[in-house]
Write the structure tokens for this entry.
Amino acid sequence: MTSSRRMGEARTCGAIRHLARGASSMARITVCALSLAFFLAGTVSAVPLALPAPTIFAPGVISGVTNDGTPTFTPDGKTLCFSRYNGHWIVLLISHFTNGRWSTPEVAPFGSSLFDQQPAFAPDGRYLIYARSDMPGSSEFVRVDKTPSGWSEPRVLPETVNISRHISQPSIAANGDIYFNAVVITAGGTEKPKSRLYRAAMVNGMYQPAQPLSFSDGTHVDVDPAIAPDQSYVVFSSKDRKPFEDGKEHLFIAFQKAGVWGPAKPIRYEGDTWEGTGDGDARISPDGKTLYFTSDRSAPLKASRTHTEVIADYKRMVQWDNSNTNVWTLSLETVLRQGGIE
């Protein structure tokens, strides 16, 4: 999710966007009541969809004082892996849900001295794919498998998936297909290409050559796909797609029926033109009905506050609300019904 593409140009493919968010102003227009609207293809009319307001996820534990994002869950929802980063380094952490709360995150056992980020569990929890970078502006996808004793050694995915060194944000469907975004530079190209969304299909245990999604034609900067387990929809971030043309990344959704992708539609909510750097790093819960995304938005401040309220605001600031990126969550059930998914 964000300024240009995570530590890709700064360190790894993607983190620069998060870093830009972390450096943004404390002034935020934040979420109060949430309403979602879809702009129908070829029109400017919108159908309002009422959703619950997005909420901060696990403040002070998962969403903390550094930059946090891309939480991915095991099938039972009780273990998550996510990225945490500062201006110099990014690392993968693991937390477990026990006794009604998330445990203090620990460095993933398969973590390396390189820049590891953007983890994605397979829907069955048997393996995890993430982006790894050993040099600025360049990354590749690697896979680790769950074993009886822990995790396997990381292995690099084939070139049918790793189609570019400017690749990020893997997301895995139930049948093994992998979705991601990439910038593919062709020989003799005269223009700087834009990030597009791709799918590498799994056939007989082998990844087929990745192909761009039909609605991601290079006209816009499309990043951070989160595919539903059954591939009925994908949530992603895009820059300068209508109705947003403010240079920031916003959340969109596209539905697939009978193997055909429909148009990208914006996920609208009150305050979605706030002064941050954008929303991204979408991840979907195991049941496919809850969206997790990363944003540097802040909680609203009252124009006039009592001393007690100021103390409470300060406690929140030193816990998580300090303009760095955090994980937010909202229900997708209403919008899925709008798309014909129950």
About this structure: The two ends are 28 Å apart (CA to CA). The CA atoms of residues 216 and 239 lie 12 Å apart. The chain has one domain: 6-338.
